Amino acid sequence: MKKYADMTREELLAEREEVQALYDALKAKDLKLNMARGKPSTEQLDMTSEMMDILRSDSDYICDGIDVRNYGNLEGLPSCQKLFAEMLGTKPENIFCGGNASLTLMYDTIAKAYTHGRVMSEKPWGKLDKVKWLCPAPGYDRHFAITQSFGAEMITIPMTAGGPDMDLVEELIRDEAVRGMWCVPKYSNPDGIVYSDETIRRIASMKPAAKDFLLMWDNAYCMHEFFGEHLPFPDILSECEKYGNADMVFEFASTSKITFPGAGVAVFACSPNNMAYMKKLMNIQMISFDKVNQLRHVRYLKNKDGVIALMKRHAAILGPKFRCVLDWLEREIAPRGLAEWEKPMGGYFVSVNTMPGIAKETWRLSKEAGLTMTGAGATYPYGKDPLDSNMRVAPSLPPVEQLEQAMEIYCVSMRLAALNKLLAG
Ligand SMILES: Cc1ncc(COP(=O)(O)O)c(C=O)c1O
To answer: Is the pTM of this model over 0.70?
Structure first.
């Protein structure tokens, strides 16, 4: 098989005729397929529904000497703090167990910085002339939506195989207007990259000009291997503390993709200073979160080993789906030289970087043939991918038979988009 870039015009024309026929045949099937959002499949949800049998009207609702049905313990059930502390490798007292979504806790952490300032701020960020924010990209669209909604000026930081480009980060944080940075350190969304020890050390030891710089460490995929064994990962809180940066970081995690998205438990982890400050502010917002759900999770998951065992069962469902996507790319796209991608071992996505200038067109052609994908550009701040190249593939929801069809449409659409581009240019 020849790379498209090495084909003569005649060869490209012949190839386009062939691929157009393939595309038209696929479109005629009138399929409705979706690889847009990273949702667990019904099979995964059915598997974890056994958790719902744990609490009944006659269950023991006392845990850690606390009646979980009543008000109290703003920071959460001690056993739940302990469970997440094991998962994240920190101390239970550094964990704040919130409600059903880590995204809410992230939004709230940033909102509080704008309205009240951080524990060490001179004034609330809302009173600053300018707030700039570092956004490693491709990244998570909902992170960028949060900082955009507060009016922060978002700066794209390219990703390398070991995490964000730290040379650039270290240069930019000399600007006092740069107040924070998003990070998804393990199985990043969408690349599936695991930050290297060196990247983590450089992040933890940053010396930003802004004294109230906020490192948003979203460890959403801390337990989420779909190939291979559980990968231990450094604790960012103690890393930051080592370099005198204990108060710089907030870490986030949830059981959204361990038990139920939207009905799990979310946490943040932070230094004692940050914890005292956040509890003071949150105590005005609420009396306590849902400790009944926290207890359900503690009794079901038990401890870190319990989570690892459950994640192996998820992996048995997810692994073949990721294998399917990677096999299609390897077979249909790699030999034609049309895109590159990381080969993730965990997380929820495969991130495909097409040849420049064809991501949007590949998305459009896929859509017209019945396949919905995450919008091209969505993985960049302001939805603008400078190279029009990155596409996020989310294979978790459809069954493998549908994924086979979806990947066929995707690969044929990419080939057609590439041929049209090469023949036009
Ligand atoms: C990196 C990342 N963070 C957070 C979330 C959402 O987490 P939660 O359900 O806890 O709000 C997602 C969901 O896709 C994600 O990919």
So the answer is: yes
Q: Is 38 in the pocket of ligand 1 (CB under 6 A)?
A: yes
Q: Which residues contact 326 (CB under 8 A, 6 or more apart)?
A: 341, 343, 350
The CATH superfamily label for domain 4-44+308-424 reads Aspartate Aminotransferase, domain 1 (3.90.1150.10)
Query: Which atom of ligand 1 sits closest to the CA of residue 261?
Result: 9
* Of the options 2.130.10.10, 1.10.357.10, 3.40.640.10, 1.10.3720.10, the CATH number for the domain spanning 61-302: 3.40.640.10
> What is the bridge-based pairing of β-strands 214-218 and 249-254?
parallel
Whether residue 218 has its Cβ less than 6 Å from ligand 1? yes
The tokens for 143 are 């992170």
pLDDT tens-place string over residues 295-353 = 999 999 999 999 999 999 999 999 999 999 999 999 999 999 999 999 999 999 999 99
Q: Which two tokens stand for residue 38?
A: 């990273």
63, two tokens: 């845990």
